[in-house]
Amino acid sequence: MHELPLVFFTVLGQTAVGMMLLAWIAGLIGQITPSQRHKINLIGLILFAIGMAIGGLHMGQPQRAFNLLFGLLRSPMSNEIVLSGLYFGCALLTVALSFPRVREIVKIKARLTISDSLHQGLNGLAVLLGLVFAWSITQVYQLETVPAWNSYYTSLHLWLTVLISGGMGALALGVYRLGSLAVIVGTITAIATRSGYMGFLNERVPHLVSAQEPFWFIYLAAVILALLAAVLGGLKKQQVKPVLLGSAMLVLVGEFAARITFYNLWWITM
Question: Is the per-residue pLDDT at 270 higher than 60?
Answer without folding.
Answer: no
